[in-house]
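Hey all, sorry for the wall of text incoming. These are the two entities for the joint prediction.
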Amino acid sequence: MLKLLNKVKVIYKKYHAGQDIPVFDHVSKRKLTKYYTRETMAAAVALGELYGEQRPSADTPFFYSTGELEFMDYFREVCNNFRKTSSKCFFGRRAANSFSGAYFIEKVMPRLSPLSQFKIMRNMPHCLIALEYGLKGENALFLDSLQGLLYSAKMCEYDGPLLIGAGKLYADGGAESGFAEILPGELDDLPLASPEDDPLAFFKRISQSLCV
Amino acid sequence: MITGFGIQSPLGCHWDEVQESIRTGQHRVGPIENFDTGGFPMTAAGEVRHNGQVVKTPGQVDRKVHFLDRALDQLLQRTQLGNRYEPDELLLNMGTGIDYLDSEGYFTRKEFTKPPGETIESHNQTGKAIRELACKYGIRGGCNTFVAACAASSQAIGFSYKLLKKGLAKAVVAGGSDSMTSHATYIGFYKLGAMAFTDEGATTCKPFDRCRNGTVLGEGAIAMALERAEDAPRDQVIMEVAGYGSTSDSFAITDPDPTADMLTRSVELALKDAGISPELIDCVHLHGTGTPKNAPVEYLALKRVFGDRVSELPVYSMKGQMGHLVGSCGAMELLGVAYSIRRQEVPHTVNFSERDPAAPLFVVKDKPLSIPIRYVLKLNASFGGHNTALVLKKPGV
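and here's what came out:
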Protein backbone atom coordinates (compact mmCIF):
# COMPACT_ATOMS: atom_id res chain seq x y z
CA MET A 1 0.00 0.00 0.00
CA LEU A 2 2.17 2.84 -1.25
CA LYS A 3 0.89 5.96 -2.92
CA LEU A 4 2.35 9.32 -3.71
CA LEU A 5 0.21 12.40 -3.34
CA ASN A 6 1.16 16.00 -2.66
CA LYS A 7 4.79 14.87 -2.23
CA VAL A 8 3.90 12.88 0.91
CA LYS A 9 5.01 9.27 0.61
CA VAL A 10 3.29 6.94 3.05
CA ILE A 11 3.38 3.22 3.65
CA TYR A 12 1.65 0.92 6.11
CA LYS A 13 2.31 -2.81 6.47
CA LYS A 14 0.76 -5.45 8.70
CA TYR A 15 1.93 -9.03 9.20
CA HIS A 16 -0.03 -11.68 11.05
CA ALA A 17 1.49 -14.19 13.44
CA GLY A 18 3.59 -16.69 11.54
CA GLN A 19 3.37 -14.76 8.27
CA ASP A 20 6.66 -14.51 6.41
CA ILE A 21 8.23 -11.04 6.45
CA PRO A 22 10.53 -10.82 3.41
CA VAL A 23 13.22 -8.87 5.18
CA PHE A 24 16.13 -10.23 3.14
CA ASP A 25 14.67 -8.62 0.02
CA HIS A 26 15.13 -5.21 1.59
CA VAL A 27 18.30 -5.11 3.70
CA SER A 28 21.93 -4.83 2.73
CA LYS A 29 23.44 -5.41 6.18
CA ARG A 30 22.24 -9.00 6.45
CA LYS A 31 24.43 -9.90 9.41
CA LEU A 32 22.51 -7.47 11.57
CA THR A 33 19.19 -9.23 10.96
CA LYS A 34 19.99 -11.54 13.87
CA TYR A 35 19.17 -8.56 16.08
CA TYR A 36 15.85 -7.90 14.31
CA THR A 37 12.52 -8.45 16.02
CA ARG A 38 9.51 -8.88 13.77
CA GLU A 39 8.75 -5.18 14.35
CA THR A 40 12.17 -4.31 12.91
CA MET A 41 11.65 -6.75 10.04
CA ALA A 42 8.32 -5.14 9.19
CA ALA A 43 9.94 -1.71 9.36
CA ALA A 44 12.76 -2.77 7.05
CA VAL A 45 10.33 -4.10 4.47
CA ALA A 46 8.09 -1.03 4.72
CA LEU A 47 11.02 1.34 4.24
CA GLY A 48 12.44 -0.79 1.45
CA GLU A 49 9.17 -0.38 -0.41
CA LEU A 50 8.88 3.31 0.49
CA TYR A 51 12.32 4.23 -0.80
CA GLY A 52 12.73 1.65 -3.58
CA GLU A 53 16.07 2.23 -5.25
CA GLN A 54 16.47 5.67 -3.69
CA ARG A 55 18.56 6.26 -0.57
CA PRO A 56 17.70 9.07 1.85
CA SER A 57 20.29 11.72 2.61
CA ALA A 58 22.47 10.80 5.63
CA ASP A 59 21.32 13.87 7.55
CA THR A 60 17.62 13.04 7.13
CA PRO A 61 15.88 13.53 10.50
CA PHE A 62 14.26 10.29 11.68
CA PHE A 63 11.57 10.17 14.37
CA TYR A 64 10.13 6.83 15.39
CA SER A 65 7.48 5.53 17.77
CA THR A 66 7.73 1.96 18.96
CA GLY A 67 4.89 0.06 20.60
CA GLU A 68 4.43 -1.35 24.04
CA LEU A 69 6.20 -4.69 23.87
CA GLU A 70 3.63 -7.39 24.22
CA PHE A 71 5.95 -10.07 22.96
CA MET A 72 9.25 -9.86 24.77
CA ASP A 73 11.70 -12.51 23.73
CA TYR A 74 13.84 -11.99 26.77
CA PHE A 75 11.04 -12.33 29.30
CA ARG A 76 9.66 -15.31 27.41
CA GLU A 77 13.07 -16.93 27.54
CA VAL A 78 13.21 -16.26 31.25
CA CYS A 79 9.80 -17.82 31.71
CA ASN A 80 10.60 -20.81 29.51
CA ASN A 81 13.63 -21.47 31.63
CA PHE A 82 11.48 -21.23 34.74
CA ARG A 83 9.21 -23.81 33.19
CA LYS A 84 12.11 -26.13 32.41
CA THR A 85 13.66 -25.89 35.83
CA SER A 86 10.72 -25.43 38.18
CA SER A 87 10.04 -29.11 38.60
CA LYS A 88 13.66 -29.98 39.32
CA CYS A 89 15.40 -29.96 42.63
CA PHE A 90 17.70 -27.05 43.28
CA PHE A 91 20.11 -26.84 46.15
CA GLY A 92 18.31 -29.78 47.66
CA ARG A 93 14.91 -28.04 47.66
CA ARG A 94 11.95 -27.99 45.33
CA ALA A 95 12.79 -25.07 43.07
CA ALA A 96 9.13 -24.15 42.64
CA ASN A 97 9.06 -22.73 46.13
CA SER A 98 12.58 -21.36 46.34
CA PHE A 99 13.19 -18.50 43.99
CA SER A 100 16.45 -16.74 44.76
CA GLY A 101 19.16 -14.72 43.09
CA ALA A 102 21.36 -17.79 42.99
CA TYR A 103 18.58 -19.80 41.37
CA PHE A 104 18.17 -17.12 38.72
CA ILE A 105 21.88 -17.00 37.98
CA GLU A 106 22.45 -20.76 38.02
CA LYS A 107 19.41 -21.92 36.14
CA VAL A 108 18.12 -19.06 34.03
CA MET A 109 20.96 -16.78 33.03
CA PRO A 110 23.12 -19.35 31.21
CA ARG A 111 20.17 -20.32 29.02
CA LEU A 112 19.39 -16.80 27.83
CA SER A 113 20.30 -16.10 24.23
CA PRO A 114 23.00 -13.42 23.93
CA LEU A 115 20.78 -11.74 21.33
CA SER A 116 17.77 -11.34 23.60
CA GLN A 117 19.16 -8.37 25.49
CA PHE A 118 19.40 -6.47 22.24
CA LYS A 119 15.91 -7.41 21.16
CA ILE A 120 14.25 -6.00 24.25
CA MET A 121 15.96 -2.62 23.97
CA ARG A 122 13.23 -0.30 22.79
CA ASN A 123 15.53 1.76 20.59
CA MET A 124 16.74 -1.18 18.50
CA PRO A 125 14.22 -0.79 15.63
CA HIS A 126 15.29 2.85 15.25
CA CYS A 127 18.97 1.95 15.61
CA LEU A 128 18.87 -0.89 13.09
CA ILE A 129 16.93 1.13 10.52
CA ALA A 130 19.37 4.03 11.00
CA LEU A 131 22.25 1.61 10.44
CA GLU A 132 20.66 0.13 7.31
CA TYR A 133 20.05 3.53 5.74
CA GLY A 134 22.99 5.44 7.25
CA LEU A 135 20.67 7.96 8.92
CA LYS A 136 22.65 10.33 11.15
CA GLY A 137 20.39 13.34 11.51
CA GLU A 138 18.15 14.73 14.23
CA ASN A 139 16.18 12.00 15.95
CA ALA A 140 13.81 11.15 18.76
CA LEU A 141 12.34 7.88 19.86
CA PHE A 142 8.92 7.58 21.46
CA LEU A 143 6.75 4.93 23.00
CA ASP A 144 3.29 4.90 21.41
CA SER A 145 3.10 8.60 20.66
CA LEU A 146 1.70 10.10 17.50
CA GLN A 147 1.75 13.49 19.17
CA GLY A 148 5.49 13.16 19.74
CA LEU A 149 6.12 12.20 16.12
CA LEU A 150 4.09 15.05 14.67
CA TYR A 151 5.45 17.67 17.06
CA SER A 152 9.00 16.53 16.29
CA ALA A 153 8.39 16.80 12.57
CA LYS A 154 6.69 20.16 12.90
CA MET A 155 9.53 21.62 15.00
CA CYS A 156 12.30 20.23 12.81
CA GLU A 157 14.30 22.93 11.06
CA TYR A 158 15.79 20.62 8.45
CA ASP A 159 15.58 21.86 4.90
CA GLY A 160 14.38 18.71 3.15
CA PRO A 161 12.21 15.64 3.57
CA LEU A 162 12.23 13.92 6.93
CA LEU A 163 11.14 10.47 8.01
CA ILE A 164 8.55 9.56 10.63
CA GLY A 165 7.58 6.01 11.45
CA ALA A 166 5.95 3.69 13.93
CA GLY A 167 5.90 0.00 14.65
CA LYS A 168 4.51 -2.57 17.01
CA LEU A 169 5.08 -6.20 17.88
CA TYR A 170 2.12 -8.15 19.24
CA ALA A 171 2.05 -10.96 21.76
CA ASP A 172 1.26 -13.54 19.10
CA GLY A 173 4.13 -12.38 16.87
CA GLY A 174 2.04 -10.17 14.60
CA ALA A 175 3.76 -6.95 13.54
CA GLU A 176 2.75 -3.58 12.12
CA SER A 177 4.81 -0.80 10.59
CA GLY A 178 4.09 2.58 9.05
CA PHE A 179 6.31 5.32 7.64
CA ALA A 180 5.92 8.66 5.93
CA GLU A 181 8.46 10.85 4.18
CA ILE A 182 7.30 14.41 4.51
CA LEU A 183 8.42 18.02 4.41
CA PRO A 184 7.94 19.87 7.72
CA GLY A 185 5.73 22.46 5.99
CA GLU A 186 3.34 19.77 4.84
CA LEU A 187 2.25 19.26 8.42
CA ASP A 188 0.92 22.80 8.73
CA ASP A 189 -2.51 21.78 7.42
CA LEU A 190 -2.62 18.65 9.52
CA PRO A 191 -4.23 18.96 12.97
CA LEU A 192 -1.78 17.91 15.65
CA ALA A 193 -2.68 14.69 17.32
CA SER A 194 -4.36 14.40 20.66
CA PRO A 195 -2.40 12.53 23.34
CA GLU A 196 -4.49 9.40 22.85
CA ASP A 197 -4.03 9.06 19.09
CA ASP A 198 -2.34 5.88 17.94
CA PRO A 199 0.58 6.35 15.56
CA LEU A 200 -0.06 3.16 13.58
CA ALA A 201 -3.72 4.03 13.09
CA PHE A 202 -2.50 7.36 11.69
CA PHE A 203 -0.23 5.73 9.11
CA LYS A 204 -2.94 3.25 8.20
CA ARG A 205 -5.52 6.01 7.81
CA ILE A 206 -3.42 8.33 5.67
CA SER A 207 -2.12 5.52 3.50
CA GLN A 208 -5.73 4.47 2.83
CA SER A 209 -6.87 8.04 2.20
CA LEU A 210 -4.04 8.56 -0.28
CA CYS A 211 -5.12 5.41 -2.12
CA VAL A 212 -8.52 6.88 -3.00
CA MET B 1 13.40 28.16 32.07
CA ILE B 2 13.82 25.31 34.54
CA THR B 3 11.87 26.30 37.64
CA GLY B 4 11.84 23.27 39.89
CA PHE B 5 12.85 19.69 40.54
CA GLY B 6 11.22 16.58 41.93
CA ILE B 7 13.99 14.12 42.82
CA GLN B 8 14.29 10.47 43.85
CA SER B 9 17.93 9.52 43.35
CA PRO B 10 20.95 7.76 44.81
CA LEU B 11 22.23 11.22 45.80
CA GLY B 12 19.10 11.96 47.78
CA CYS B 13 15.45 12.88 47.43
CA HIS B 14 15.65 16.65 47.88
CA TRP B 15 17.57 19.29 45.97
CA ASP B 16 19.53 20.41 49.07
CA GLU B 17 20.46 16.81 49.87
CA VAL B 18 21.62 16.24 46.28
CA GLN B 19 23.75 19.38 46.30
CA GLU B 20 25.42 18.29 49.53
CA SER B 21 26.08 14.81 48.10
CA ILE B 22 27.71 16.34 45.03
CA ARG B 23 29.79 18.76 47.10
CA THR B 24 31.14 16.10 49.42
CA GLY B 25 31.47 13.41 46.76
CA GLN B 26 30.06 10.75 49.08
CA HIS B 27 29.91 7.34 47.44
CA ARG B 28 26.35 6.34 46.61
CA VAL B 29 27.09 3.04 44.91
CA GLY B 30 27.12 -0.08 47.04
CA PRO B 31 25.99 -3.71 47.21
CA ILE B 32 22.36 -3.95 46.06
CA GLU B 33 20.01 -3.99 49.03
CA ASN B 34 16.63 -4.11 47.34
CA PHE B 35 16.74 -7.62 45.88
CA ASP B 36 18.62 -10.84 46.45
CA THR B 37 21.84 -10.86 44.41
CA GLY B 38 23.18 -14.16 45.74
CA GLY B 39 25.30 -15.75 43.01
CA PHE B 40 25.33 -12.63 40.83
CA PRO B 41 28.66 -11.90 39.12
CA MET B 42 28.24 -8.21 39.99
CA THR B 43 26.28 -6.82 42.92
CA ALA B 44 26.97 -3.09 42.92
CA ALA B 45 24.44 -0.39 41.99
CA GLY B 46 23.42 3.12 42.90
CA GLU B 47 19.99 2.67 44.52
CA VAL B 48 17.67 5.50 45.47
CA ARG B 49 18.52 6.77 48.94
CA HIS B 50 16.75 9.02 51.36
CA ASN B 51 18.92 10.50 54.12
CA GLY B 52 21.65 8.07 53.08
CA GLN B 53 19.51 4.93 53.42
CA VAL B 54 18.47 2.80 50.45
CA VAL B 55 14.72 3.05 49.79
CA LYS B 56 13.34 -0.50 49.72
CA THR B 57 10.19 -1.60 47.94
CA PRO B 58 8.37 -4.95 47.63
CA GLY B 59 9.22 -7.08 44.60
CA GLN B 60 5.91 -6.42 42.85
CA VAL B 61 6.61 -2.67 42.72
CA ASP B 62 8.06 -1.23 39.51
CA ARG B 63 10.58 1.09 41.11
CA LYS B 64 10.83 3.47 38.18
CA VAL B 65 7.08 4.10 38.32
CA HIS B 66 7.08 4.30 42.12
CA PHE B 67 9.88 6.86 42.16
CA LEU B 68 8.38 8.85 39.30
CA ASP B 69 5.11 9.08 41.20
CA ARG B 70 6.96 10.51 44.21
CA ALA B 71 9.08 12.87 42.08
CA LEU B 72 5.99 14.26 40.32
CA ASP B 73 4.20 14.75 43.62
CA GLN B 74 7.20 16.60 45.02
CA LEU B 75 7.61 18.78 41.92
CA LEU B 76 3.97 19.76 41.60
CA GLN B 77 3.70 20.62 45.27
CA ARG B 78 6.77 22.83 45.13
CA THR B 79 6.12 24.63 41.86
CA GLN B 80 2.32 24.80 42.07
CA LEU B 81 2.22 24.26 38.30
CA GLY B 82 -1.28 22.86 38.67
CA ASN B 83 -2.49 26.15 40.11
CA ARG B 84 -0.75 28.31 37.53
CA TYR B 85 -1.71 26.41 34.36
CA GLU B 86 -4.83 24.72 33.05
CA PRO B 87 -4.55 20.90 32.80
CA ASP B 88 -4.60 21.12 28.98
CA GLU B 89 -1.64 23.52 29.05
CA LEU B 90 0.63 21.02 30.83
CA LEU B 91 2.55 18.22 29.11
CA LEU B 92 4.51 15.32 30.55
CA ASN B 93 7.64 14.24 28.61
CA MET B 94 9.57 11.46 30.31
CA GLY B 95 12.52 9.31 29.37
CA THR B 96 12.50 5.73 30.58
CA GLY B 97 13.78 2.25 29.90
CA ILE B 98 12.41 -1.22 29.39
CA ASP B 99 9.38 -2.74 31.10
CA TYR B 100 9.61 -4.23 34.56
CA LEU B 101 9.30 -7.95 35.22
CA ASP B 102 8.88 -9.09 38.81
CA SER B 103 10.84 -12.31 38.31
CA GLU B 104 10.05 -13.72 41.71
CA GLY B 105 6.31 -13.10 41.33
CA TYR B 106 6.43 -14.55 37.82
CA PHE B 107 8.04 -17.65 39.25
CA THR B 108 6.04 -18.17 42.41
CA ARG B 109 2.69 -17.48 40.73
CA LYS B 110 3.70 -19.78 37.83
CA GLU B 111 2.77 -17.07 35.36
CA PHE B 112 5.15 -18.66 32.89
CA THR B 113 2.43 -21.21 32.19
CA LYS B 114 0.14 -18.57 30.67
CA PRO B 115 -0.13 -18.40 26.86
CA PRO B 116 1.27 -15.37 24.96
CA GLY B 117 -0.97 -12.32 25.07
CA GLU B 118 -2.65 -13.13 28.35
CA THR B 119 -2.33 -10.49 31.07
CA ILE B 120 0.73 -11.11 33.19
CA GLU B 121 0.47 -9.58 36.64
CA SER B 122 4.24 -9.50 37.08
CA HIS B 123 4.86 -7.56 33.86
CA ASN B 124 4.45 -3.82 34.29
CA GLN B 125 3.99 -1.78 31.12
CA THR B 126 5.92 1.39 31.79
CA GLY B 127 4.36 3.55 29.08
CA LYS B 128 0.86 2.82 30.32
CA ALA B 129 1.90 3.51 33.91
CA ILE B 130 3.40 6.89 32.95
CA ARG B 131 0.19 7.87 31.13
CA GLU B 132 -1.76 6.95 34.26
CA LEU B 133 0.53 9.18 36.33
CA ALA B 134 -0.12 12.07 33.93
CA CYS B 135 -3.86 11.63 34.55
CA LYS B 136 -3.35 11.31 38.31
CA TYR B 137 -1.53 14.64 38.45
CA GLY B 138 -3.91 16.47 36.13
CA ILE B 139 -1.51 16.76 33.20
CA ARG B 140 -3.81 16.64 30.18
CA GLY B 141 -1.94 18.46 27.39
CA GLY B 142 -0.06 15.37 26.32
CA CYS B 143 2.19 12.60 27.54
CA ASN B 144 5.23 11.50 25.58
CA THR B 145 7.47 8.68 26.73
CA PHE B 146 11.00 8.70 25.31
CA VAL B 147 12.87 5.42 24.96
CA ALA B 148 16.26 6.17 23.36
CA ALA B 149 18.08 4.24 26.11
CA CYS B 150 20.72 6.41 27.83
CA ALA B 151 19.71 9.45 25.75
CA ALA B 152 15.98 9.10 26.53
CA SER B 153 15.64 11.76 29.22
CA SER B 154 17.90 14.27 27.49
CA GLN B 155 15.76 13.80 24.36
CA ALA B 156 12.69 14.43 26.54
CA ILE B 157 14.20 17.66 27.88
CA GLY B 158 15.43 18.80 24.45
CA PHE B 159 12.01 18.12 22.94
CA SER B 160 10.30 20.02 25.78
CA TYR B 161 12.62 23.00 25.33
CA LYS B 162 11.77 23.10 21.63
CA LEU B 163 8.03 22.97 22.34
CA LEU B 164 8.36 26.05 24.54
CA LYS B 165 10.68 27.82 22.14
CA LYS B 166 8.33 27.26 19.20
CA GLY B 167 5.29 28.38 21.19
CA LEU B 168 3.64 24.95 21.02
CA ALA B 169 3.39 24.60 24.81
CA LYS B 170 3.27 26.82 27.88
CA ALA B 171 4.67 24.50 30.52
CA VAL B 172 6.14 21.02 30.48
CA VAL B 173 7.07 18.51 33.16
CA ALA B 174 10.10 16.73 31.72
CA GLY B 175 12.78 14.36 32.92
CA GLY B 176 13.28 10.67 33.27
CA SER B 177 12.74 7.65 35.45
CA ASP B 178 14.46 4.31 35.24
CA SER B 179 15.44 1.39 37.38
CA MET B 180 17.14 -1.77 36.20
CA THR B 181 17.88 -3.05 39.68
CA SER B 182 15.88 -6.26 39.38
CA HIS B 183 16.92 -9.81 38.49
CA ALA B 184 16.07 -9.87 34.78
CA THR B 185 17.03 -6.32 33.83
CA TYR B 186 20.24 -6.17 35.89
CA ILE B 187 21.52 -9.39 34.33
CA GLY B 188 20.33 -8.26 30.90
CA PHE B 189 22.45 -5.13 31.20
CA TYR B 190 25.36 -7.18 32.53
CA LYS B 191 25.22 -9.42 29.48
CA LEU B 192 25.34 -6.42 27.16
CA GLY B 193 28.97 -6.08 28.26
CA ALA B 194 28.96 -2.46 29.41
CA MET B 195 29.14 -3.21 33.12
CA ALA B 196 32.50 -3.19 34.88
CA PHE B 197 34.07 -6.63 35.12
CA THR B 198 35.54 -6.10 38.56
CA ASP B 199 33.13 -5.58 41.44
CA GLU B 200 34.86 -2.96 43.58
CA GLY B 201 31.75 -1.76 45.36
CA ALA B 202 31.60 2.02 45.58
CA THR B 203 34.67 2.51 43.39
CA THR B 204 33.59 0.22 40.56
CA CYS B 205 32.78 2.95 38.05
CA LYS B 206 35.75 5.24 37.28
CA PRO B 207 34.82 7.76 34.58
CA PHE B 208 37.80 8.96 32.47
CA ASP B 209 40.30 7.12 34.68
CA ARG B 210 43.12 5.19 33.02
CA CYS B 211 42.00 2.04 34.88
CA ARG B 212 38.27 2.30 34.09
CA ASN B 213 36.74 -0.97 32.90
CA GLY B 214 33.02 -0.39 32.73
CA THR B 215 30.00 1.21 34.25
CA VAL B 216 27.67 0.31 37.11
CA LEU B 217 23.89 0.65 37.15
CA GLY B 218 21.97 3.27 39.06
CA GLU B 219 18.30 4.16 39.33
CA GLY B 220 16.16 7.19 39.95
CA ALA B 221 13.43 9.56 38.85
CA ILE B 222 13.81 13.25 38.16
CA ALA B 223 10.96 15.52 37.13
CA MET B 224 11.62 19.14 36.27
CA ALA B 225 9.37 22.05 35.43
CA LEU B 226 10.11 23.87 32.19
CA GLU B 227 8.29 27.14 31.59
CA ARG B 228 8.44 29.98 29.10
CA ALA B 229 10.55 32.95 30.23
CA GLU B 230 7.49 35.22 30.34
CA ASP B 231 5.56 32.82 32.61
CA ALA B 232 8.30 31.56 34.91
CA PRO B 233 8.28 33.03 38.43
CA ARG B 234 11.58 34.96 38.61
CA ASP B 235 12.48 33.70 42.06
CA GLN B 236 12.07 30.07 41.03
CA VAL B 237 14.30 30.08 37.93
CA ILE B 238 17.21 27.69 38.42
CA MET B 239 18.71 27.75 34.93
CA GLU B 240 17.75 28.19 31.30
CA VAL B 241 17.95 25.70 28.46
CA ALA B 242 19.64 27.69 25.70
CA GLY B 243 20.28 25.14 22.97
CA TYR B 244 19.75 21.54 21.93
CA GLY B 245 21.18 19.25 19.28
CA SER B 246 20.62 15.58 18.51
CA THR B 247 22.26 13.22 16.04
CA SER B 248 22.69 9.51 15.44
CA ASP B 249 26.02 7.72 14.97
CA SER B 250 24.62 5.08 12.66
CA PHE B 251 27.85 3.20 13.32
CA ALA B 252 27.18 0.15 15.49
CA ILE B 253 24.60 -1.25 17.87
CA THR B 254 26.50 -0.68 21.10
CA ASP B 255 29.84 0.95 20.34
CA PRO B 256 30.21 4.70 19.84
CA ASP B 257 31.67 5.87 16.55
CA PRO B 258 35.41 6.28 17.31
CA THR B 259 35.63 9.23 14.89
CA ALA B 260 33.15 11.15 17.14
CA ASP B 261 31.76 12.76 13.97
CA MET B 262 28.12 12.85 15.00
CA LEU B 263 28.73 13.54 18.70
CA THR B 264 30.73 16.55 17.53
CA ARG B 265 27.88 17.51 15.22
CA SER B 266 25.36 17.39 18.07
CA VAL B 267 27.53 19.84 20.03
CA GLU B 268 27.79 22.14 17.02
CA LEU B 269 24.01 22.05 16.57
CA ALA B 270 23.39 22.87 20.24
CA LEU B 271 25.86 25.77 20.19
CA LYS B 272 24.29 27.10 17.00
CA ASP B 273 20.82 26.79 18.52
CA ALA B 274 22.01 28.67 21.61
CA GLY B 275 23.57 31.33 19.39
CA ILE B 276 26.93 31.19 21.14
CA SER B 277 30.49 30.34 20.19
CA PRO B 278 32.43 27.52 21.90
CA GLU B 279 34.57 30.06 23.81
CA LEU B 280 31.57 30.91 26.00
CA ILE B 281 31.25 27.38 27.40
CA ASP B 282 32.78 27.37 30.89
CA CYS B 283 32.65 23.64 31.67
CA VAL B 284 31.33 20.41 30.21
CA HIS B 285 29.29 17.77 32.01
CA LEU B 286 30.02 14.66 29.97
CA HIS B 287 28.20 11.34 29.66
CA GLY B 288 31.27 9.73 31.29
CA THR B 289 30.12 6.13 31.68
CA GLY B 290 33.40 4.64 32.86
CA THR B 291 33.55 2.29 29.87
CA PRO B 292 36.84 2.03 27.97
CA LYS B 293 35.36 3.28 24.67
CA ASN B 294 33.34 6.25 25.95
CA ALA B 295 36.08 8.58 27.20
CA PRO B 296 38.26 8.75 24.04
CA VAL B 297 35.20 9.53 21.91
CA GLU B 298 34.04 12.32 24.21
CA TYR B 299 37.58 13.69 24.32
CA LEU B 300 37.80 13.69 20.54
CA ALA B 301 34.46 15.50 20.18
CA LEU B 302 35.59 18.20 22.62
CA LYS B 303 38.97 18.47 20.92
CA ARG B 304 37.24 19.07 17.59
CA VAL B 305 34.90 21.71 18.99
CA PHE B 306 37.18 23.47 21.48
CA GLY B 307 40.61 22.85 19.93
CA ASP B 308 43.59 23.21 22.28
CA ARG B 309 41.30 24.67 24.94
CA VAL B 310 40.21 21.11 25.71
CA SER B 311 43.21 20.70 28.02
CA GLU B 312 41.99 23.50 30.30
CA LEU B 313 38.21 23.08 29.96
CA PRO B 314 36.94 21.44 33.17
CA VAL B 315 34.81 18.34 32.69
CA TYR B 316 32.70 16.25 35.05
CA SER B 317 30.80 12.96 35.19
CA MET B 318 28.28 12.09 37.90
CA LYS B 319 28.31 8.34 37.20
CA GLY B 320 31.32 7.48 39.37
CA GLN B 321 29.37 8.62 42.40
CA MET B 322 25.92 7.11 41.74
CA GLY B 323 26.10 4.82 38.70
CA HIS B 324 24.41 4.97 35.33
CA LEU B 325 20.71 5.79 35.53
CA VAL B 326 20.21 4.80 31.84
CA GLY B 327 16.77 6.16 30.82
CA SER B 328 16.93 8.92 33.43
CA CYS B 329 20.67 9.71 33.42
CA GLY B 330 20.41 12.88 31.32
CA ALA B 331 17.78 14.38 33.63
CA MET B 332 19.68 13.37 36.77
CA GLU B 333 22.90 14.81 35.42
CA LEU B 334 21.20 18.14 34.77
CA LEU B 335 21.11 18.40 38.56
CA GLY B 336 24.90 18.44 38.36
CA VAL B 337 24.66 21.25 35.82
CA ALA B 338 22.28 23.14 38.11
CA TYR B 339 24.80 22.65 40.92
CA SER B 340 27.54 24.15 38.73
CA ILE B 341 25.42 27.14 37.76
CA ARG B 342 24.09 27.80 41.26
CA ARG B 343 27.36 27.31 43.17
CA GLN B 344 29.76 28.40 40.40
CA GLU B 345 31.71 25.18 40.86
CA VAL B 346 32.63 22.24 38.70
CA PRO B 347 32.18 19.14 40.88
CA HIS B 348 34.95 16.59 41.22
CA THR B 349 34.46 13.28 39.41
CA VAL B 350 34.27 10.59 42.06
CA ASN B 351 36.65 7.63 41.53
CA PHE B 352 38.82 9.48 39.01
CA SER B 353 42.48 9.42 39.98
CA GLU B 354 44.75 8.95 36.96
CA ARG B 355 44.49 10.66 33.59
CA ASP B 356 44.18 8.43 30.53
CA PRO B 357 46.62 9.33 27.73
CA ALA B 358 43.91 8.27 25.26
CA ALA B 359 41.50 10.81 26.73
CA PRO B 360 43.58 13.59 28.33
CA LEU B 361 40.65 15.60 29.64
CA PHE B 362 40.84 18.17 32.43
CA VAL B 363 38.88 16.13 34.96
CA VAL B 364 38.33 17.91 38.27
CA LYS B 365 39.39 15.64 41.11
CA ASP B 366 39.40 15.54 44.91
CA LYS B 367 37.27 18.67 45.46
CA PRO B 368 35.02 21.00 43.42
CA LEU B 369 36.71 23.67 41.31
CA SER B 370 35.43 27.24 41.75
CA ILE B 371 35.25 29.20 38.49
CA PRO B 372 32.81 31.72 36.98
CA ILE B 373 30.15 29.69 35.15
CA ARG B 374 27.64 31.17 32.71
CA TYR B 375 27.20 28.42 30.11
CA VAL B 376 27.48 24.65 30.61
CA LEU B 377 27.49 22.02 27.89
CA LYS B 378 25.84 18.68 28.75
CA LEU B 379 26.41 15.60 26.60
CA ASN B 380 24.72 12.21 26.57
CA ALA B 381 25.04 9.25 24.23
CA SER B 382 23.50 5.82 24.15
CA PHE B 383 23.55 2.28 22.89
CA GLY B 384 21.95 2.52 19.49
CA GLY B 385 23.98 5.61 18.63
CA HIS B 386 21.78 8.47 19.85
CA ASN B 387 23.76 11.60 20.78
CA THR B 388 22.37 14.65 22.56
CA ALA B 389 23.90 17.99 23.50
CA LEU B 390 22.24 20.60 25.68
CA VAL B 391 23.51 24.09 26.44
CA LEU B 392 22.40 25.40 29.84
CA LYS B 393 22.68 29.04 30.87
CA LYS B 394 22.85 30.88 34.15
CA PRO B 395 19.67 32.98 34.63
CA GLY B 396 20.11 36.61 33.69
CA VAL B 397 23.18 36.10 31.44
